[in-house]
């Protein structure tokens, strides 16, 4: 009997022991085992949800730190065009100040200070037409043009000179991108220009005239209030912008026109408009031979026509602006007149420079 029981017991086969890796030796393995039950599945789901919620909160906090920030992008300058409020004359891209700016951008491999653009709101052709109508074909900058490339996607709010430098150098332009209304674009452009390379009186006046003519502001006063400028300065700039084209062309560059000349020129136009234009046309042919002050005096009749044999005044320009003029008084003595007064230190430096010049000239005369 016992022998038969032993034989039957030998026929029983026990299941193989589970592999070690399948045993719940770790918390994760335990969780996987628990997940086979409803409570385990719920616990696993809640754990995963908690991690996702924490990650979302972290990302939300990081995003909040950028609240109000504008996206800064590197754009192909060919995709950026001028707006209808573009206000730089071609001469602004030919002076020493622009050359220095372009050199700095080339050395840095791009503009460190970003320009500002907004997404283009009108067809490229319409944008180009607006620029040509507002600034004038004769004022269009020479060389590569941002508007000559098909398919621009942005228009400049401010930073025309930095954009132009990057375009000429073939470098990407660093830009802030913000959508804004027309008045915002106009006001930001005007304020930023004053903070950097200020526009000339004529450029400023042309910008104001377009804003009024196109109904952006209903009056001079409201325009002045919007941009934070003195109403008198706005009026002088507008007066220069409203001068006949022949009068502006009598000067070597419209950038030579000065705020203080606005009223005398306006008075001359009101007193004798035909005579003013006639004098301007006579001066235009020889504009390069005369200083801006000589042209102004001849136009307003204070010095009569510029004499053919007279020695022309020589303007001294720095950064595209006339800062002084070498001229003669009634007795033929040579004078140097500065646009602004010099302090004591500047006068001493000037005297030292003149002493060196006169000593050098005297040596040259003796050797000759």
Structure notes:
With 368 residues, the chain is an alpha/beta fold. The protein has a domain at 70-197: Conserved hypothetical protein from pyrococcus furiosus pfu- 392566-001, ParB domain (Alpha-Beta Complex). It is 50% helix and 11% strand. The chain has 15 helices and eight strands. It has helices spanning 2-10, 27-34, 38-64, 96-108, 124-135, 160-169, 182-195, 201-213, 220-227, 231-241, 245-249, 262-271, 273-284, 292-300, 344-367; strands at residues 72-75, 80-81, 115-119, 154-158, 173-177, 314-318, 321-328, 334-338. The strands form two sheets. A five-stranded mixed sheet has the order 1-5-3-4-2. Strands 6-7-8 form a three-stranded antiparallel sheet, with no helix packed on it. Helix 4 (96-108) packs across helix 6. The radius of gyration is 37 Å and the shape is elongated. The protein starts with a helix and ends with a helix. Mean pLDDT is 75; it is low at 20-34, 124-149 and 303-310.
Shape: elongated
User: What is the alpha-carbon Rg in Å?
Assistant: 37 Å
Strand elements, count = 8
The low-confidence parts are 20-34, 124-149, 303-310
Q: Report strand %.
A: 5-15%
CATH-level-2 architecture of one domain: Alpha-Beta Complex
CATH H-level name of one domain... which superfamily? Conserved hypothetical protein from pyrococcus furiosus pfu- 392566-001, ParB domain
Strand order of the largest sheet: 1-5-3-4-2
Whole-number mean pLDDT: 75
What level of helicity do the residues show? 40-55%
Largest sheet: 5 strands, mixed
Total helical segments: 15
């Amino acid at each position: 009997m016992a022998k038969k029981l032993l034989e039957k017991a030998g026929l029983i086969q026990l299941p193989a022991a589970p592999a070690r890796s399948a045993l719940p030796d770790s918390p994760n393995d335990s969780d996987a085992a628990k997940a086979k039950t409803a409570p385990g599945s719920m616990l696993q789901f809640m754990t995963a949800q908690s991690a996702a919620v924490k990650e979302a909160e972290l990302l939300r906090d990081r995003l909040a730190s950028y609240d109000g920030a504008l996206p800064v992008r590197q754009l192909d300058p060919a995709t950026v065009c001028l707006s209808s409020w573009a206000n730089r004359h071609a001469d602004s891209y030919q002076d020493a100040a622009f050359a220095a700016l372009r050199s700095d951008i080339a050395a840095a491999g791009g503009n460190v200070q970003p320009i500002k653009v907004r997404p283009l709101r009108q067809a490229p052709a319409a944008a180009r037409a607006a620029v040509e109508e507002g600034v004038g074909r004769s004022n269009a900058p020479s060389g590569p043009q941002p508007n000559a490339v098909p398919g621009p996607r942005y228009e400049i709010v401010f930073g025309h000179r930095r954009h132009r430098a990057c375009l000429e150098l073939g470098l990407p332009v660093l830009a802030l991108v913000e959508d804004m209304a027309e008045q915002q674009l106009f006001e930001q452009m005007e304020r930023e220009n004053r903070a950097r390379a200020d526009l000339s009186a004529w450029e400023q006046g042309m910008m104001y005239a377009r804003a009024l003519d196109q109904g952006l502001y209903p009056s001079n006063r409201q325009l002045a209030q919007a941009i934070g400028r003195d109403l008198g300065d706005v009026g002088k700039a507008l007066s220069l912008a409203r001068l006949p084209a022949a009068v502006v062309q009598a000067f070597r560059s419209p950038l030579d026109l000065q705020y203080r000349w606005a009223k005398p020129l306006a008075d001359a136009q009101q007193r004798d408009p035909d005579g003013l234009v006639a004098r301007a046309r006579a001066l235009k042919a020889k504009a390069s031979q005369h200083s801006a002050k000589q042209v102004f005096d001849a136009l307003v009749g204070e010095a009569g026509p510029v004499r053919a044999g007279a020695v022309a005044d020589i303007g001294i320009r720095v950064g595209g602006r006339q800062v002084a003029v070498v001229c003669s008084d009634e007795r033929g003595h040579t004078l140097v007149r500065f646009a602004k007064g010099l302090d004591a230190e500047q006068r001493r430096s000037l005297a030292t420079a003149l002493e060196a010049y006169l000593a050098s000239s005297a040596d040259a005369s003796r050797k000759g």
